[in-house]
Amino acid sequence: MAHQHHQHHHAHHHHQAPAAATKFDINTSYAMNSGHKIPALGYGVYQTPAADCEAVVLHAFKTGYRHVDSARAYRNEQPCADAIRASGLKREEIFFTSKVPPRAMGYEETKKAIESSFFQTGLDYIDLYLIHAPYGGKEARCGSWRALAEAQKQGRICSIGVSNYGVHHLDELEDYIKTSGVGGTIDVGQWEIHPWLPRNDIVEWAKGRNVVVEAYCPIVRGERAEEPVLKSLSKKHGKTWAQVLLRWSLQKGYVPLPKSVTPTRIEQNADIYDFELDQEDMESLDMPNSYAPCSWDPTTSHE
Ligand SMILES: NC(=O)c1ccc[n+]([C@@H]2O[C@H](COP(=O)([O-])OP(=O)(O)OC[C@H]3O[C@@H](n4cnc5c(N)ncnc54)[C@H](OP(=O)(O)O)[C@@H]3O)[C@@H](O)[C@H]2O)c1
Q1: Which CATH number characterizes residue 90's domain?
Q2: Which of this chain's residues are annotated to bind substrate (predicted)?
Q3: pLDDT by residue (tens digit) across 244-285?
Q4: 31, 120, 211, 216: least buried by Cβ within 10 Å?
Q5: Whole-model pTM over 0.90
Q6: Which atom in ligand 1 lies closest to the alpha carbon of residue 132?
Q7: Which residues are known binding-site members for substrate?
Q8: Ligand 1, closest atom to CA 218?
Protein backbone atom coordinates (compact mmCIF):
# COMPACT_ATOMS: atom_id res chain seq x y z
CA MET A 1 0.00 0.00 0.00
CA ALA A 2 1.35 3.45 -0.87
CA HIS A 3 1.89 5.68 2.13
CA GLN A 4 2.22 9.43 2.22
CA HIS A 5 5.37 11.15 3.33
CA HIS A 6 4.29 14.09 5.46
CA GLN A 7 6.26 17.29 5.11
CA HIS A 8 5.97 18.11 8.78
CA HIS A 9 5.70 16.08 11.94
CA HIS A 10 2.69 16.11 14.21
CA ALA A 11 3.02 16.22 17.97
CA HIS A 12 1.72 12.67 18.31
CA HIS A 13 3.44 11.32 15.28
CA HIS A 14 3.05 7.58 14.86
CA HIS A 15 6.30 6.04 13.80
CA GLN A 16 6.23 3.79 10.80
CA ALA A 17 6.56 0.15 11.79
CA PRO A 18 10.19 -0.87 11.38
CA ALA A 19 10.84 -1.91 7.81
CA ALA A 20 10.00 -5.58 7.37
CA ALA A 21 13.13 -7.71 7.37
CA THR A 22 12.11 -9.14 4.02
CA LYS A 23 9.55 -8.68 1.33
CA PHE A 24 7.67 -11.76 2.49
CA ASP A 25 5.41 -12.29 5.44
CA ILE A 26 3.09 -15.09 6.46
CA ASN A 27 0.23 -13.42 4.56
CA THR A 28 2.10 -13.07 1.27
CA SER A 29 0.02 -14.37 -1.63
CA TYR A 30 0.28 -14.61 -5.40
CA ALA A 31 -2.30 -13.86 -8.09
CA MET A 32 -3.10 -16.84 -10.28
CA ASN A 33 -4.27 -16.97 -13.91
CA SER A 34 -7.77 -17.75 -12.57
CA GLY A 35 -7.87 -14.32 -10.91
CA HIS A 36 -7.81 -15.85 -7.44
CA LYS A 37 -4.99 -15.57 -4.90
CA ILE A 38 -2.91 -18.31 -3.32
CA PRO A 39 -1.04 -17.99 0.00
CA ALA A 40 2.71 -18.31 -0.55
CA LEU A 41 3.17 -20.75 2.33
CA GLY A 42 1.25 -24.01 2.39
CA TYR A 43 0.89 -26.82 4.90
CA GLY A 44 1.11 -30.40 3.58
CA VAL A 45 -0.77 -33.36 5.01
CA TYR A 46 0.62 -36.30 3.03
CA GLN A 47 0.96 -39.25 5.45
CA THR A 48 -0.83 -37.35 8.18
CA PRO A 49 -3.11 -39.97 9.76
CA ALA A 50 -6.79 -39.02 9.44
CA ALA A 51 -7.24 -39.40 13.19
CA ASP A 52 -4.60 -36.71 13.93
CA CYS A 53 -5.30 -34.50 10.97
CA GLU A 54 -7.93 -32.10 12.34
CA ALA A 55 -5.77 -31.25 15.37
CA VAL A 56 -2.56 -30.61 13.44
CA VAL A 57 -4.33 -28.53 10.78
CA LEU A 58 -5.91 -26.49 13.58
CA HIS A 59 -2.45 -25.99 15.04
CA ALA A 60 -1.23 -24.84 11.64
CA PHE A 61 -4.10 -22.30 11.44
CA LYS A 62 -3.28 -21.08 14.95
CA THR A 63 0.33 -20.64 13.84
CA GLY A 64 -0.78 -18.53 10.87
CA TYR A 65 -0.83 -20.91 7.91
CA ARG A 66 -3.90 -20.36 5.73
CA HIS A 67 -3.26 -22.96 3.03
CA VAL A 68 -3.67 -26.75 3.33
CA ASP A 69 -2.45 -29.18 0.68
CA SER A 70 -4.42 -32.42 0.74
CA ALA A 71 -5.44 -34.99 -1.89
CA ARG A 72 -7.98 -37.77 -2.28
CA ALA A 73 -5.09 -40.21 -2.07
CA TYR A 74 -4.13 -38.92 1.40
CA ARG A 75 -7.52 -39.98 2.83
CA ASN A 76 -7.72 -36.93 5.04
CA GLU A 77 -9.77 -34.37 3.12
CA GLN A 78 -12.59 -34.68 5.66
CA PRO A 79 -10.57 -33.89 8.80
CA CYS A 80 -8.98 -30.97 6.91
CA ALA A 81 -12.47 -29.61 6.23
CA ASP A 82 -13.47 -30.27 9.85
CA ALA A 83 -10.49 -28.14 10.90
CA ILE A 84 -11.56 -25.36 8.53
CA ARG A 85 -15.01 -25.35 10.17
CA ALA A 86 -13.61 -25.60 13.72
CA SER A 87 -11.02 -22.84 13.17
CA GLY A 88 -13.36 -19.91 13.65
CA LEU A 89 -11.83 -18.41 10.51
CA LYS A 90 -13.99 -17.40 7.59
CA ARG A 91 -14.02 -19.93 4.78
CA GLU A 92 -12.62 -17.35 2.36
CA GLU A 93 -9.60 -16.80 4.62
CA ILE A 94 -8.49 -20.38 4.02
CA PHE A 95 -7.12 -21.99 0.89
CA PHE A 96 -7.79 -25.70 0.46
CA THR A 97 -6.33 -28.00 -2.19
CA SER A 98 -7.22 -31.52 -3.23
CA LYS A 99 -6.11 -33.71 -6.14
CA VAL A 100 -7.46 -36.24 -8.63
CA PRO A 101 -5.98 -39.61 -7.67
CA PRO A 102 -4.08 -41.48 -10.39
CA ARG A 103 -6.71 -44.25 -10.36
CA ALA A 104 -9.43 -41.69 -11.27
CA MET A 105 -7.93 -40.40 -14.50
CA GLY A 106 -10.32 -39.75 -17.40
CA TYR A 107 -13.42 -37.55 -17.69
CA GLU A 108 -16.05 -39.69 -15.94
CA GLU A 109 -13.79 -40.93 -13.15
CA THR A 110 -12.49 -37.44 -12.42
CA LYS A 111 -16.04 -36.07 -12.24
CA LYS A 112 -16.76 -38.76 -9.65
CA ALA A 113 -13.59 -37.95 -7.71
CA ILE A 114 -14.56 -34.28 -7.56
CA GLU A 115 -18.06 -35.21 -6.34
CA SER A 116 -16.55 -37.44 -3.66
CA SER A 117 -14.35 -34.56 -2.47
CA PHE A 118 -17.40 -32.33 -2.10
CA PHE A 119 -19.36 -35.11 -0.40
CA GLN A 120 -16.59 -35.94 2.07
CA THR A 121 -15.58 -32.40 2.91
CA GLY A 122 -18.99 -30.75 2.89
CA LEU A 123 -17.32 -27.66 1.43
CA ASP A 124 -19.27 -25.32 -0.88
CA TYR A 125 -16.23 -24.72 -3.02
CA ILE A 126 -12.65 -25.95 -3.25
CA ASP A 127 -9.89 -23.44 -3.86
CA LEU A 128 -7.59 -25.61 -5.95
CA TYR A 129 -7.86 -29.04 -7.53
CA LEU A 130 -4.86 -30.61 -9.23
CA ILE A 131 -4.34 -33.67 -11.39
CA HIS A 132 -2.06 -35.60 -9.02
CA ALA A 133 0.10 -37.25 -11.69
CA PRO A 134 0.25 -37.52 -15.50
CA TYR A 135 -0.64 -41.22 -15.65
CA GLY A 136 -3.20 -43.04 -17.81
CA GLY A 137 -2.29 -41.77 -21.29
CA LYS A 138 -3.20 -38.67 -23.25
CA GLU A 139 -6.94 -39.30 -23.53
CA ALA A 140 -7.29 -39.83 -19.79
CA ARG A 141 -5.19 -36.76 -18.96
CA CYS A 142 -7.25 -34.57 -21.30
CA GLY A 143 -10.51 -36.04 -19.98
CA SER A 144 -9.48 -35.26 -16.40
CA TRP A 145 -8.65 -31.72 -17.46
CA ARG A 146 -12.07 -31.31 -19.10
CA ALA A 147 -13.78 -32.36 -15.87
CA LEU A 148 -11.70 -29.86 -13.86
CA ALA A 149 -12.34 -27.08 -16.40
CA GLU A 150 -16.10 -27.68 -16.18
CA ALA A 151 -16.03 -27.54 -12.38
CA GLN A 152 -14.00 -24.33 -12.60
CA LYS A 153 -16.51 -22.82 -15.03
CA GLN A 154 -19.31 -23.71 -12.58
CA GLY A 155 -17.42 -21.91 -9.82
CA ARG A 156 -17.24 -25.00 -7.62
CA ILE A 157 -13.48 -25.20 -8.00
CA CYS A 158 -11.81 -21.80 -8.12
CA SER A 159 -8.45 -22.75 -9.59
CA ILE A 160 -7.08 -25.83 -11.32
CA GLY A 161 -3.74 -27.25 -12.25
CA VAL A 162 -1.44 -30.22 -12.45
CA SER A 163 1.14 -32.02 -10.38
CA ASN A 164 4.15 -34.04 -11.47
CA TYR A 165 3.73 -33.04 -15.13
CA GLY A 166 6.90 -33.06 -17.22
CA VAL A 167 7.43 -30.45 -19.94
CA HIS A 168 6.08 -32.90 -22.54
CA HIS A 169 2.87 -33.33 -20.49
CA LEU A 170 2.58 -29.57 -20.05
CA ASP A 171 2.97 -28.98 -23.79
CA GLU A 172 0.32 -31.61 -24.46
CA LEU A 173 -2.09 -29.92 -22.04
CA GLU A 174 -1.43 -26.44 -23.40
CA ASP A 175 -2.11 -27.70 -26.92
CA TYR A 176 -5.33 -29.43 -25.74
CA ILE A 177 -6.58 -26.23 -24.09
CA LYS A 178 -5.82 -24.20 -27.23
CA THR A 179 -7.43 -26.60 -29.68
CA SER A 180 -10.32 -28.25 -27.80
CA GLY A 181 -12.26 -25.25 -26.55
CA VAL A 182 -12.82 -26.91 -23.14
CA GLY A 183 -11.17 -23.96 -21.46
CA GLY A 184 -9.64 -23.84 -18.02
CA THR A 185 -6.54 -21.97 -16.97
CA ILE A 186 -3.41 -23.68 -15.72
CA ASP A 187 -3.23 -21.86 -12.42
CA VAL A 188 -0.78 -23.97 -10.44
CA GLY A 189 1.78 -26.69 -10.97
CA GLN A 190 3.08 -28.77 -8.08
CA TRP A 191 6.39 -30.60 -8.20
CA GLU A 192 9.11 -31.92 -5.92
CA ILE A 193 11.48 -28.95 -5.91
CA HIS A 194 14.45 -28.18 -3.64
CA PRO A 195 18.12 -27.41 -4.30
CA TRP A 196 18.91 -31.08 -5.11
CA LEU A 197 16.03 -31.20 -7.61
CA PRO A 198 15.68 -27.66 -9.01
CA ARG A 199 13.71 -28.66 -12.15
CA ASN A 200 14.77 -25.54 -14.00
CA ASP A 201 13.19 -26.65 -17.30
CA ILE A 202 9.76 -27.08 -15.73
CA VAL A 203 10.08 -23.89 -13.67
CA GLU A 204 10.94 -21.90 -16.79
CA TRP A 205 7.88 -23.31 -18.58
CA ALA A 206 5.66 -22.39 -15.66
CA LYS A 207 7.05 -18.91 -15.06
CA GLY A 208 6.62 -17.99 -18.72
CA ARG A 209 2.89 -18.62 -18.33
CA ASN A 210 2.34 -17.23 -14.84
CA VAL A 211 1.69 -20.76 -13.56
CA VAL A 212 2.31 -20.65 -9.80
CA VAL A 213 4.97 -23.20 -8.82
CA GLU A 214 4.28 -25.18 -5.67
CA ALA A 215 7.26 -27.00 -4.14
CA TYR A 216 6.61 -30.32 -2.44
CA CYS A 217 9.16 -32.06 -0.22
CA PRO A 218 10.61 -28.56 0.28
CA ILE A 219 12.70 -29.83 3.20
CA VAL A 220 13.62 -33.06 1.38
CA ARG A 221 11.94 -35.12 4.14
CA GLY A 222 14.87 -34.31 6.41
CA GLU A 223 17.30 -36.31 4.27
CA ARG A 224 19.71 -33.40 3.66
CA ALA A 225 19.97 -32.11 7.23
CA GLU A 226 23.68 -32.90 7.36
CA GLU A 227 24.67 -31.18 4.10
CA PRO A 228 27.60 -28.81 4.77
CA VAL A 229 25.97 -25.99 2.80
CA LEU A 230 22.94 -26.15 5.10
CA LYS A 231 25.08 -26.30 8.22
CA SER A 232 26.95 -23.19 7.17
CA LEU A 233 23.83 -21.20 6.20
CA SER A 234 22.12 -22.34 9.38
CA LYS A 235 25.00 -21.02 11.45
CA LYS A 236 25.27 -17.78 9.48
CA HIS A 237 21.59 -16.89 9.93
CA GLY A 238 20.85 -18.51 13.28
CA LYS A 239 18.02 -20.52 11.69
CA THR A 240 17.56 -24.28 11.24
CA TRP A 241 18.42 -26.16 8.02
CA ALA A 242 14.68 -26.60 7.42
CA GLN A 243 14.07 -22.86 7.72
CA VAL A 244 16.96 -22.20 5.31
CA LEU A 245 15.41 -24.55 2.74
CA LEU A 246 11.95 -23.02 3.13
CA ARG A 247 13.41 -19.54 2.76
CA TRP A 248 15.23 -20.63 -0.42
CA SER A 249 11.93 -21.86 -1.83
CA LEU A 250 10.09 -18.63 -0.97
CA GLN A 251 12.86 -16.46 -2.41
CA LYS A 252 12.78 -18.49 -5.63
CA GLY A 253 9.14 -17.42 -5.89
CA TYR A 254 7.74 -20.87 -5.13
CA VAL A 255 4.96 -21.91 -2.77
CA PRO A 256 6.61 -24.36 -0.35
CA LEU A 257 4.37 -27.01 1.22
CA PRO A 258 6.19 -28.27 4.33
CA LYS A 259 4.55 -31.15 6.19
CA SER A 260 4.82 -31.83 9.88
CA VAL A 261 2.61 -33.39 12.51
CA THR A 262 4.86 -32.01 15.27
CA PRO A 263 3.56 -28.75 16.79
CA THR A 264 7.03 -27.23 17.37
CA ARG A 265 8.05 -28.03 13.79
CA ILE A 266 4.78 -26.65 12.41
CA GLU A 267 5.72 -23.39 14.16
CA GLN A 268 9.38 -23.54 13.14
CA ASN A 269 8.47 -24.02 9.48
CA ALA A 270 6.39 -20.83 9.50
CA ASP A 271 9.04 -18.81 11.35
CA ILE A 272 10.91 -17.86 8.20
CA TYR A 273 10.16 -14.15 7.83
CA ASP A 274 12.86 -12.61 10.02
CA PHE A 275 15.87 -13.38 7.86
CA GLU A 276 16.91 -13.27 4.24
CA LEU A 277 19.31 -15.29 2.15
CA ASP A 278 21.59 -12.97 0.19
CA GLN A 279 22.61 -13.56 -3.40
CA GLU A 280 25.70 -15.48 -2.40
CA ASP A 281 23.66 -17.71 -0.06
CA MET A 282 21.16 -18.37 -2.85
CA GLU A 283 23.98 -19.18 -5.29
CA SER A 284 25.53 -21.60 -2.80
CA LEU A 285 22.27 -23.58 -3.04
CA ASP A 286 22.24 -23.42 -6.84
CA MET A 287 22.84 -26.92 -8.24
CA PRO A 288 21.34 -26.68 -11.72
CA ASN A 289 22.55 -30.14 -12.75
CA SER A 290 21.41 -32.00 -9.66
CA TYR A 291 18.50 -34.42 -10.16
CA ALA A 292 17.89 -36.30 -6.92
CA PRO A 293 14.21 -36.92 -6.13
CA CYS A 294 13.31 -38.10 -2.62
CA SER A 295 9.72 -38.95 -3.64
CA TRP A 296 8.15 -40.55 -6.73
CA ASP A 297 8.90 -38.95 -10.10
CA PRO A 298 6.04 -39.20 -12.60
CA THR A 299 7.40 -36.24 -14.62
CA THR A 300 9.53 -38.65 -16.68
CA SER A 301 6.62 -40.97 -17.48
CA HIS A 302 5.88 -41.52 -21.16
CA GLU A 303 2.57 -43.39 -21.06
N1 LIG B 1 1.91 -33.93 -5.51
C2 LIG B 1 2.64 -34.92 -5.04
O3 LIG B 1 2.85 -35.95 -5.71
C4 LIG B 1 3.24 -34.82 -3.68
C5 LIG B 1 4.22 -35.75 -3.26
C6 LIG B 1 4.79 -35.59 -1.99
C7 LIG B 1 4.37 -34.54 -1.18
N8 LIG B 1 3.39 -33.67 -1.59
C9 LIG B 1 2.90 -32.57 -0.73
O10 LIG B 1 3.99 -31.87 -0.16
C11 LIG B 1 3.95 -31.96 1.26
C12 LIG B 1 5.36 -32.02 1.83
O13 LIG B 1 6.08 -33.10 1.32
P14 LIG B 1 6.56 -34.32 2.25
O15 LIG B 1 5.63 -34.42 3.38
O16 LIG B 1 6.69 -35.49 1.38
O17 LIG B 1 8.03 -33.87 2.68
P18 LIG B 1 8.67 -32.67 3.54
O19 LIG B 1 7.66 -31.65 3.89
O20 LIG B 1 9.91 -32.25 2.81
O21 LIG B 1 9.17 -33.43 4.86
C22 LIG B 1 8.28 -33.91 5.82
C23 LIG B 1 9.10 -34.70 6.86
O24 LIG B 1 10.02 -33.83 7.52
C25 LIG B 1 9.77 -33.82 8.92
N26 LIG B 1 9.91 -32.41 9.36
C27 LIG B 1 9.02 -31.41 9.16
N28 LIG B 1 9.48 -30.24 9.62
C29 LIG B 1 10.70 -30.49 10.15
C30 LIG B 1 11.65 -29.68 10.79
N31 LIG B 1 11.44 -28.38 10.96
N32 LIG B 1 12.81 -30.26 11.23
C33 LIG B 1 13.01 -31.57 11.02
N34 LIG B 1 12.15 -32.41 10.42
C35 LIG B 1 10.98 -31.86 9.99
C36 LIG B 1 8.37 -34.35 9.10
O37 LIG B 1 8.27 -35.04 10.34
P38 LIG B 1 7.00 -34.93 11.33
O39 LIG B 1 5.76 -34.81 10.49
O40 LIG B 1 7.07 -36.20 12.09
O41 LIG B 1 7.23 -33.71 12.18
C42 LIG B 1 8.25 -35.32 7.94
O43 LIG B 1 8.85 -36.57 8.26
C44 LIG B 1 3.11 -33.22 1.50
O45 LIG B 1 2.59 -33.29 2.81
C46 LIG B 1 2.06 -33.08 0.43
O47 LIG B 1 1.10 -32.12 0.82
C48 LIG B 1 2.83 -33.80 -2.83
Answers
A1: 3.20.20.100
A2: 132
A3: 999 999 999 999 999 999 999 999 999 999 999 999 999 999
A4: 31
A5: yes
A6: 1
A7: 132
A8: 20
